[in-house]
Amino acid sequence: MIASKLTQELGIQLPSAEQQLRLNWKNDHGVEVWIKRDDLIHPIISGNKWRKLSQTLFSAAHSPPAKIISFGGGHSNHLHALGFCCQKLNIPLLAVIRGDYSQNMTPMLNDLERWGAQLEWVNKITYAKRTDNTYLEVLRQNHPNSLIIPEGGSQHQALSGVASIVTELTQEFDLIVAPVASGGTMAGLIQATQNSKTRVLGIGVLKGHDYLHELVNQFLPNESKKQLNGQKASTDWQLNSDFHFGGYAKKTPELIAFCEQFEQDNNIPIEPIYSGKLFWGLRQLVESNHFPAGSKILALHTGGLQGKRALPNIMTKRNKHAVD
Ligand SMILES: *Cc1c(COP(=O)(O)O)cnc(C)c1O
Predict the structure, then answer these.
(1) Could you tell which of 203, 248, 302 is best to mutate to test the pocket of ligand 1, judged by most ligand atoms within 8 Å of the CB?
(2) Which domain holds residue 64?
(3) pLDDT at 107
(4) How many domains does the chain have?
(5) pTM over 0.90
(6) pLDDT tens digit string along 244-270?
(7) Which residue in 127, 159, 282, 291 is deepest, having the highest Cβ count within 10 Å?
């Protein structure tokens, strides 16, 4: 199946819109913030996950593996996107899940089951082996002719799909900002902007500044890698770790309130795990005069809104004034 046909069959709508945010932030100093609405490219296949999976899925559609195997937590946007695509492509999916959710299925896991995925619960110790060669070799032996996709869909093959975010742009930006978890999206953006004046800033959504640098570095050619001693790479990119709120999926009432206000002000849905932290961090940086006056910034809305379904009602208006 050719790429454009698959894209069409899945209902992927590209290019995604670039939309300017009307800032009501303090001290914006003429900074312009635009959003690339990858959250809108598909109702189920979440934005950056499609970008990262597209090349792999084109190959899989062309010569289907016996099975696809991948990894994630109980709310994984990656597994959600992949599960939907596998069902459409008629390729069996084995989803290796961190933790046993059999007694408290999440909306994401219910969807995976509905789409025919096989769920395998593993404990933290086994899940930690998900990139070990010996573990992967056993998986391969147990599932002949399978295609193993790393957690988050972050792998070398993902980078060219992510690059399409940049090639689609209709204007030049000084900076692209994106949330960072497994690093593939950030690496793809860095590679796609290496010969331009556009810099890339990642907002880490989990703890571990050095760890996140390593994740991004592993996908980059040597000349683009960032040395942790502060030595500059040829491509200018930066990771900020000030806005993870204590770790992955950790959140505070302030962050939740910010997300709600942002949604109201801009009529753009966001969630507190990725895009909420991105825009929170961006606002802090703009208000603290971090960027040169008049900078033109593009924030990548990476989607991930399906994950919001499992959040307690804190994100719904109905519950806003609840007293309990
Ligand atoms: C997975 C995900 C990210 C993180 O992207 P990485 O390539 O893993 O760093 C950001 N936002 C959303 C909504 C995601 O689902």
Answers:
(1) 302
(2) 48-153
(3) 96
(4) 2
(5) yes
(6) 999 999 999 999 999 999 999 999 999
(7) 282
